[in-house]
Amino acid sequence: MQALAPLAANLAVASAMVALTVLTHFWGLVGLTRIVSGGHKRLKAHESAGRAALVMLLGVFGVFALHTVEIWFYAALYRGLGETATFEQALYFSTTTFASLGYGDIVLSPNWRLLSAIEGANGVILFAWSTAFLLTVTRKLNLIERDWLERGR
After folding, report:
1. Predicted TM-score of the model (pTM)
2. What is the pLDDT of residues 97-134, one digit of tens each?
3. So what's the pLDDT on residue 124?
4. Domain residue spans in the chain?
5. What angle do CA 130, 17, 106 make, to 5 degrees?
6. Taking each helix axis from N to C terminus, what angle separates 87-98 and 113-152, rounded to the nearest 10 degrees?
7. Residues 6+ apart with CB under 8 A from 109
8. Inter-residue contact 32 to 63 (CB < 8 Å)
9. Which of 138, 131, 115 has the alpha carbon at shortest distance from 67?
10. CA gap 87, 67 in Å, rounded
C-alpha cells in the first residue's frame, strides 16, 4: 500500500500540471490567434512577403513564449519539491524533459520520476499542438500569396 502513495502523488500532481499547461496553451493560442489573424487580415495581396514574414515570426515567438512559461511551471514545481539544488538545474531539467531530450545528467528521485515522464509526454503533445497552429498560420499566409500571384497575372 505504501508503494501506491508516491504513485498517487505523482499522478495527482502530474494531472494538475497537465491541466495547467493545457489551459495556459489554450488561452495563449487564443490570444496569439487574435494577434496573428489581425496581422494577416491587414496584409493586402500586393504587399511584400516581409510583412507576412513578420506575422509568421510573431506566431513562432508567441508559441516559443508559451512553451517557455510551461517549462518554467514545471521547473518551479521541481524546485519547490526540493528535487534540484538550484532553480537553474530545475529549469535545465524541465527544458530537456519537456522537449523529450532527456540527457540524464540530472534525474529526479524515485519518488517523483513518474512526474518527469509525464512532463515529457505533455511536452510532445503541446509541441504538436503548436505545430498545428503554426501550420494554420502558414496556410493562411499561403492563401494571401496565391491571391497576390493570381492578381498579378
Report:
1. 0.86
2. 999 998 889 999 999 999 999 999 999 999 999 999 99
3. 98
4. 4-152
5. 90
6. 60
7. 83
8. yes
9. 131
10. 17
